[in-house]
Structures are given as structure tokens and as C-alpha cells.
């Protein structure tokens, strides 16, 4: 039995709802899956899905769990570049570029399941001459463009000079994106520190000072921002 034939209904539904398959009907999805060379895999927390120095030729699609795109320096200091949640994709930029040695590592932050799509299968016409490949390529380009926007936003945060400025930049964007001063972020404390490239202890101390000053309230990863002037 082919891997695509092993997909359960909830997995097919996730694929159908994913941005990667925008513009493709459920019936068309069933037709195109046999052409994509999909493979299924389960993983455990802290598993390395790809490691820096390897070459990526496949695009990952997350059915469940959470993975992080990270960079580690010589001393093991870690920066989270991106977090991929259920229904998200990863590896497309490096697979598309044909990068011989990727500069990042893909780490499982939770147990989960995923599918791999060989990149070359997306580019080449299959024997069935599916008319949907062009739509997939368009969707893939839009996905990479959207991730470039997210990367620019991250650069805006980490380019700030102080830990407070980085926190305010990130939290402000979260509130604006959700159009609400109350929101939950997808990171725990260590992950947020790694994402903003700051020391966790210094960041926690700064958050406590900001709360005492009445700028915000927080409980774990839930935040409430207050509308008042602040000092950097």
C-alpha cells in the first residue's frame, strides 16, 4: 500500500485546509496525492528531523506536534528562527534553492506526525499529466513569500538594542495581529528568549519590571497589554 493510501480522514482534511493546497478541491486532492511521492513519518520530542550541514530535498508537512527551525553556535547557544505548528510546512526554501548544506536544524518540540513531499515531484509533470501542479507551485511560492515577511518581522524584533525593546516590539506585533490587547503566544519562556536572542533570566526580570510598571500583565504565555506610555 502506498503511503498516500494510508492517510486517515483527519489527515486528508488537514491537507485540504492547508495553504499549500489552496485552490484545489477535495476531489482534485485525491487525484494529485498519488503523484507527489508522499511518505509518512512519526517523530518524538527532541528528535532532529534535519540537521545543519545536511541537504534537504523534501518538504515537510506537519499533521500534529510542533517543530522549530533553530540555529546553534559553537558553544550550543540556540536561536529559534521559526516555529512550525500543525498544518504548517518547512524546508521548502532550502529544497527549492538546492542548498547543499543547510545552515539550520529542524528540531521536534513535541511528539507528532508529518508527511514529506519530494521537491522534484512538485516540479515535474507526472505520467497522469495532472493539471494541478501549476497551482501547487503558485501556492509554494506564496508560502515562501509569507515566511520572508515573518523573517523580516523577526529581524525587526531582534535588531532592537535592549531586552525591553525586543519584548515590546514582539508583544506589540502580537496584539496588532490579533487586534486585541489580550493574547497567547506560542512560546514558553525559554523558547521566547531563544526567539528574541536574549538571556532568559534577563528577559524574565524585565517582564517582571514591566508588569510592576503597569505596562502589561502575564500568566505563563498569556499576556495583557495596557495602553499607557512606556520608557525604554
Tags for this entry?
elongated; 232 residues; single chain; Arc Repressor Mutant, subunit A; Jelly Rolls; 2 domains; alpha+beta; four-stranded antiparallel β-sheet; 8 helices
Polypeptide structure, described:
This protein has 232 residues and is of the alpha+beta class. The chain folds into two domains: 3-156, Sandwich (Jelly Rolls), CATH 2.60.120; 160-225, Orthogonal Bundle (Arc Repressor Mutant, subunit A). It is 39% helix and 22% strand. It is built from eight helices and eleven strands. The strands form three sheets. Strands 1-8-3-6 form a four-stranded antiparallel β-sheet. It has a four-stranded antiparallel β-sheet with strand order 2-7-4-5. Strand 4 and strand 5 (78-84) form a beta hairpin. It is elongated.
CATH architecture annotation of the largest domain: Sandwich
Number of domains: 2
Tally the beta strands: 11
Largest sheet: 4 strands, antiparallel
Rg (C-alpha, Å): 20 Å
β-sheet strand percentage: 15-25%
- Going by helix content, strand content and strand pairing, the class is alpha+beta
Strand order of the largest sheet: 1-8-3-6
CATH superfamily of the largest domain: Jelly Rolls
Percentage of residues assigned to helices: 25-40%
Provide a concise account of the structure shown.
This protein is α+β, with helices and mostly antiparallel strands and 232 residues long.
Topology:
Layout: H1 9-17, H2 26-32, E1 39-43, E2 48-50, E3 58-64, E4 67-72, E5 78-84, E6 89-90, H3 92-97, E7 105-108, E8 112-118, H4 119-123, H5 133-158, H6 163-178, E9 182-184, H7 189-196, H8 200-212, E10 216-219, E11 222-225
Antiparallel strand pairs: 1-8, 2-7, 3-6, 3-8, 4-5, 4-7, 9-11, 10-11
